[in-house]
Amino acid sequence: MLLFAFVVLVPSARGVYYAFTDWDGLSPDLSFVGLDNFAGIARDPDAVQAIWHTVVIAVSITIIQNGIGLLLALGVNSLIKSRTVLRVFLFAPAVVTPIVTAYLWRNLLGPDGAVNSLLGAVGLGRWGQDWLGDPQLALWSIVAVIVWQFAGYSMVIFLAGLQSVPKELYEAAAIDGSGPVRRFWSVIRPQLAPAITINLMLSIIGGIKLFDQVYALTGGGPGHATDTISTLIYKDAFTLGEFGYSIALAVVLTIIVAVASTGQYLVLARNERAAS
Amino acid sequence: MNRYRWRTFGLELAMIAAAVVVAFPVYVLVNLAVRAPSDTSSPIRPTTSPTLANFSQAWREGGLGGALVNSALVTSISVVVVLAVSSLAAYPLARATARWSRAMFLLIMLGLVLPFQLAALPLYQTMRDLGLLGTVWALVLFYAGLQVPFTTFLYTGFIRALPHDFEDAALIDGCRPWDAFRHVVFPMLRPVTVTALVLNAIAVWNDFFTPLLYLSGSDQQTMPVALAGFVGQYVADWNLIFAALVISIVPILVLYFALQRSIINGFAGGLKG
């Protein structure tokens, strides 16, 4: 308990306090500057942009990763012969260190990388892009890399949910003669409510806190085209020495996480009650 | 409906195609890691004369051996501490009904929501004052504090669903509470312990931000930080970088494939918490 207080609670509280000061991380003398740091964030186009990127990344990862994860889970939960092997392979990227996959993809997505080579090999060479160097595309490339790595994670959680659906339900629905889509929506989806809750929670919060992949793939560039709140926190504190400002950003991040998780919890708790 | 039909076969092919998409980057990774730097053919063409020279050079120059030891050390110590603290904290939280235990539980849940970025910078200062900066102990301390809330949450949910009878019987037989916990309750917690072990070990092993902060400027490195440094040093020498990446992935994947059943169940097990 003490440990937890020492590592999380006390520093967090101090963090909130520093957010209102001009602390530079070293000198013991600091002065109270009120809301200056927050006003600075609102005025700083890079920071506003980073907040926007963070939201875009979190939302798109949540939708795409869980969508694909669910399709994969339905596929693996069928009668196909390779289901056991596929489950193991599809999940494998999720245990690999994120920064390793990010460096791997940085090469694959480069101008002479494997993705462009592959497009060339199948005659789509003109679709080739500088996936990470183009400010328009870079953010989406990052989303794609994360989806590639963690779709299997969502799949495993959905799969656990699917396997807890009683067999009788499937059979009853099949006898009623309802089509596969209707069967999924009306019979299986309500049973998946807990799995959906967990998956949405994990991907939204993971997306909001995202740091490793952005750092390794683009470093926030080109320019500031892919900076997220977390990369700005790091840069402001450790390359610019603006600790107070950086921590104010962390407070903004905390608020976003808190709002996202409370909102989500309320909506999903209602749905789960409705489903049961 | 439970028969293998043409449609099932179509689904099988579609799923295998999905697996190929997932595996493609790994193929390129290995393909380039065994290629000599002079070979500049397309990255998707199989390497004609594979070499292992990249691996030995990456190992020698990247300091990967030391990083591997550090990572293993940090991961195992942190996980043991987290499991011990969390299971002990969860037991009274789940069993006691007093008001303080409910308040305590909420306080711990607060730790689930607070992003670590908020605490990371002030803690950086504290660690520096304690002289722990640049040592693996800073990391162990940090992870212990960071992972305890989630793990306690898992344990508490699990213990609440356990019947009281066994501990009651042990206590009536004159067992001290500590022994009752150690010999009676803890063994029953095995499933959730496996889940917590897997989740914590992977989170700690893969973490990059924390060691980047707390170990920067020292010669102590964990695997992710060593790799980042390596990439920074050999910017365009991708054959060498890929060899280093392969070295870092192999231990994880070997463990994963050896223990895949418990690991996948471990991840899925959080669902029941």
TrEMBL record, chain A:
Q: Which regions form coiled coils?
A: none
Q: What is its main location?
A: membrane
Q: Which UniProt keywords apply?
A: Cell membrane, Membrane, Transmembrane, Transmembrane helix, Transport
Q: InterPro entries from the entry?
A: ABC_transporter_permease, MetI-like, MetI-like_sf
Q: How does it sit in the membrane?
A: Multi-pass membrane protein
Tell me the domain of life: Bacteria
Q: Which residues cross the membrane?
A: 50-73, 85-105, 137-160, 192-211, 243-268
Tell me where in or outside the cell this protein is found: Cell membrane
**Keyword set includes Lyase:** no
Q: Domain ABC transmembrane type-1: where?
A: 51-264
Q: Into which family does the record put it? A: Belongs to the binding-protein-dependent transport system permease family.
Q: What is this protein called?
A: Sugar ABC transporter permease
Q: Which organism is it from?
A: Micromonospora globbae
TrEMBL record, chain B:
The terms describing its cellular component in GO are: plasma membrane
Which residue ranges does UniProt annotate as crossing the membrane? 12-34, 67-91, 103-124, 136-163, 184-205, 240-259
Broad class of where this protein is predominantly found: membrane
Indicate yes or no for the key word S-adenosyl-L-methionine: no
Topologically, how does it sit relative to the membrane?
A: Multi-pass membrane protein
Location comes to:
Cell membrane
What protein name applies here?
A: Carbohydrate ABC transporter permease
Q: Which organism is it from?
A: Micromonospora globbae
Phylogenetic lineage? Bacteria, Bacillati, Actinomycetota, Actinomycetes, Micromonosporales
